[in-house]
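Note to self: user wants both folds in one dump. Writing first protein now.
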Amino acid sequence: MIIWIIIGMALVTAVPRFFPAFIIDRIQFPKWIDRWLNAIPHAALGALIFPGILSVKPDAPQIGIIAALAAGALAWLNLNIIIVVLGAIAAVFLMTF
């Protein structure tokens, strides 16, 4: 009986995730909707990262802001993402050392 409950829960969570992926390829959206949908991952990533930037060191939020600017500058130079992350970590380390 428990296996059927697990299978049912898997289907209930999997279907809403996979179903839109199959439909979205067959629909032609207007250009403005397509641009809006392409901006969603960037906005979500920013919303997830921004609170962490300000809470790197709660009594000194400028450290996180400076590290974010350093990461932005490295990313603007089209460096590898690992270099960008390591640059931000190094910036925080040097400012808290």
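First done. Writing the second protein, which came from a different request thread.
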Amino acid sequence: MEHVQKLKEELNKQPVHIRIAVQGVVALVGIWLVVGYAASFLTSFLGFLYPAYCSVKAIESTQKDDDTQWLTYWVVYSAFSLVEFFSDIFLSWFPFYYLAKMAFLGWCMAPISSNGSQFLYHRFIKPFILKHQAEIEDSLDKVTDIASSTLSEAFKGLSEAQKMAQDAAAEAAAEQVKKAMEQQNADKTD
């Protein structure tokens, strides 16, 4: 909560016109998310833009904590996006869905130690992954084997097709040379 308090204090230090502008932008975005066109895009954009920027900063910093914070956010964001993909057609009909989604993503990316990403990751995602880790690893190994053999067969087929194309091109070129020589011999006899 100290980060939130620091943000409030920092905002209160700003001139009145800056505070009003920030509050106006927040209100405008909130209204837009309720009634505006492309609210889905706006929530996805806002849920991506700030975290992406912070992730780049975290990658470039020497601290490990910020890397973990933003990796955790992306794991939760991915899990949420997967669930949302299958339920969005129903959820988007709720009047305040995109506003609630933006509030949820804001909670997940909040610059506090116990934000939504930390809560959801440690409470739900981590236990689920640890419980099913062996099955997940087996499935990934099977998928990797299938993908590897499929790629191998595809490259083999591609190589055979390339060889056939080269043979056909060489045969066609030889045929053209033969015809050209026959035409040249026919022209000499005339």
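Dump finished. Worth passing along: The chain has a mean pLDDT of 86.
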